[in-house]
Amino acid sequence: MTYFICQSEFSVSRERLFSFHEGPDGFRILVGLSKGIEVISSPKSLSIGELAIMRIPVFPLLKVKWIAKHIEYERNVLFTDMQMEGPFQIFKHRHKFRALTEDSCVLTDEIEVQFWFWPVTRWFLLPILKKQFQARHKSTAEFLGCKQKLMFCGYSISIID
User: Fold this and answer.
1) Cα–Cα distance measured from residue 38 to residue 48, given in angstroms and rounded to the nearest whole number
2) I need a labelling partner for 140 at 20 to 30 A (CA). Which of 11, 33, 79, 121 fits?
3) Which CATH number fits domain 3-156: 3.20.20.80, 3.30.530.20, 3.40.630.30, 4.10.320.10?
4) d(Cα 56, Cα 128) in Å, to the nearest integer?
């Protein structure tokens, strides 16, 4: 299995970072960074069973419906959403929050990903994912008014904890 992982340290409490993702600004800001995404329905919370429904660009002039369902939730620790319908064969996105001190934490975006013709497509997908998740981490830090230090961003054959 291939994982895409983007991990950053933030100079903010784990609870505050999680709260950003749980609040209405998190989804709006992070999804808004990707051009061309049309949000049909936003999740009301991070609770298990909530859906995000969007139309996303996959090629110029071609959009597909993407339905992601929240399947795992542990307050201030993690939440996971999984593609139920969309362009990927597999797309399972786990957001993990680990406290380092009272005022610092690590956010790990861990995506189990499989796309058509994976031995080839993984190479053109990597720069897209890296750009998107580095921008997400940077924008999160800007919104929270804290520092962010990128630790890792790329493919892995195993999970980073």
Assistant:
1) 23
2) 121
3) 3.30.530.20
4) 14
Asked if 13 and 160 touch (Cβ cutoff 8 Å), the reply is: no
Tokens matching residue 133: 């998740």
- In order along its 161 residues, the chain shows pLDDT tens digits of 689 999 999 999 999 999 999 998 999 999 988 888 999 999 999 999 999 999 998 877 889 999 999 999 999 999 999 999 999 999 999 999 999 999 999 999 999 988 877 677 777 788 889 999 999 999 999 999 999 999 999 988 777 66
Query: SS3 of 104, please?
Result: strand
Give the pTM: 0.93
* Eight-state DSSP code of residue 99: E
Helix axes 14-22, 24-32, angle to 10 degrees: 80
Give the count of alpha carbons within 13 A of 109, CB side only.
23
At 55, list the tokens: 């139309």
**Amino acid identity of 137?**
H
Domain definitions of the chain by residue range: 3-156
Helix (H) or strand (E) holding 120: helix 118-144
